[in-house]
Amino acid sequence: MMARYVLIVVALLVALLLLRILILTRSRGSVLCCLRPLAGGRRWRLGVVRYAQGCLKWIPLIGLLPRPRRVIARRGLVVSGRRKIGPGEFFGFLEGVTALECSSGAFRFELAMGYRALTGFVAWLESAPPGAHLDVA
Q1: What are phi and psi of 132, to 5 degrees?
Q2: Which Pfam families does the annotation name (predicted)?
Q3: Higher-confidence residue: 46 or 136?
Q4: Number of C-alpha atoms within 13 angstroms, CB side, residue 104?
Q5: Which residues pair with 70 in a beta bridge?
Q6: What is the pLDDT of residue 90?
Q7: H or E stretch including 127?
Q8: Could you give the C-alpha distances from 101 to 16, 37, 88, 95, in angstroms and in order?
Q9: DSSP label at 38?
Q10: Which one-letter DSSP state was computed for residue 69?
């Protein structure tokens, strides 16, 4: 009997996680994007990016809170490099992904995204208001 309750709870948690993923990926203005901090040798984290009010808001796909984990202002964002992701480096289900080496203040990180998301990201960077300092490699 106890095993049935545990199974029901696990099934509900999986359903809630799938619902979160569906809502985040289908929301207007959300783009699938992976983030990896360069300090500490951390791994890629799958999430979505939303562009709002001159900020890039990165929300992890798997998590408890619906709020962004990272908020990066466009004004201080510096893109210093670009490279193609190797086949063994990533999750394996994404191909044709480009990684951008970025920094915002002391936070250095990489963003990985597909071609369409990369085009939108560059357009967002270039659409900064006049006089804004942008540094794009």
Answers
A1: -75, 140
A2: DUF2550
A3: 46
A4: 16
A5: 58
A6: 65
A7: none
A8: 33, 10, 19, 18
A9: T
A10: S
Q: Which two tokens stand for residue 123?
A: 């357009």
C-alpha 60/C-alpha 20 separation (Å) is: 10
Structure tokens at 89: 């480096």
Set out the domains of the chain in order of their start, with CATH numbers: 2-136 (2.30.29.30)
Single pTM value for the model: 0.76
User: 77-84 and 45-52 as β-strands: parallel, antiparallel, unpaired?
Assistant: unpaired
pLDDT at position 46 over 70: yes
The answer to whether 23 and 15 are in contact (CB under 8 A) is no
For residue 42, the one-letter residue type is R
Question: Under 8 Å CB-to-CB from 135, ≥6 apart: which residues?
Answer: 78, 79, 80
Size of the chain in residues: 137
SS3 118: helix
Unique residue bearing structure tokens 């569906």: 22
